[in-house]
Amino acid sequence: MKKLLLLFSLLSVSVCAFAQKGNSEIPKAFEEAYGRTVEPLHNAYGIPVVYDVVLGEREEFGPYKFPIKGELRESELQNYKNRAIYKAMLEKGADELIGSIFDSYVPEEDSKTLFVKLSAYPAYWKNFRNLDPNSKEIEMIRVIYPSATDNTGKIQEEKRKTGAAAK
Fold first, then answer.
1. Is residue 124 domain-shared with residue 62, that is, in the same domain?
2. pLDDT value of residue 13
3. Is the sign of the CA dihedral 116, 118, 124, 125 positive or negative?
4. Could you tell me which of 29, 118, 109 has the C-alpha nearest to residue 81?
5. How many CB atoms within 10 Å of residue 138?
6. What per-residue confidence (pLDDT) applies to 145?
7. Same domain, 121 and 155
8. Cα torsion at 97, 37, 127, 62 (round to 10°)?
């Protein structure tokens, strides 16, 4: 019975010690992350929310190091690029990166490490607002996204013609 109690006590202490480790970095066998890149096609129904994009100057990010386990496949390389975008966005506090250009390489002296550098324009979303159906912006959206002219767009156009559109 004493051995069982001792074993239980040791197990409890080790669990508590592990729990106190907190937010320290945990070794990872795999990690996937994704940051937003430009996503221009969205279907909107009703009155969409629009925002202004404040574009920063082109900046260099990285190099970010990623361990290679085995043979590097195209899908893994894309994942590493997405993780580099994610890290760059966190560094700058950006909402998206525009015009990303990548430089990914494995140095000869360390064939188990991939380095990813990127260059992009950090962009920040500001001034969120409902789109006024009577504004000139709505016509711009219809030209850029012709598939967005659904029943809602037709109704708004009819209201504008009759003067019954809400302001």
1. yes
2. 42
3. negative
4. 118
5. 20
6. 75
7. no
8. -20
Tokens of residue 15, six digits? 């669990």
Show the domain range for 146. 131-167
The letter for the amino acid at 69 is: K
For residue 80, CA distances in Å to 12, 74, 103 come to: 39, 10, 11
Please report the pLDDT score of residue 48 as a whole number: 74
Distance separating alpha carbons of residues 56 and 49, to the nearest angstrom: 22
Indicate if the alpha-carbon torsion angle 21, 24, 28, 34 is positive or negative. positive
**Mean pLDDT per 10-residue interval, the chain, length 167 residues:** 45 45 59 66 65 95 94 92 96 95 93 95 93 78 70 55 54
Same structural domain, 63 and 107: yes
Same domain for 57 and 116, yes or no, is yes
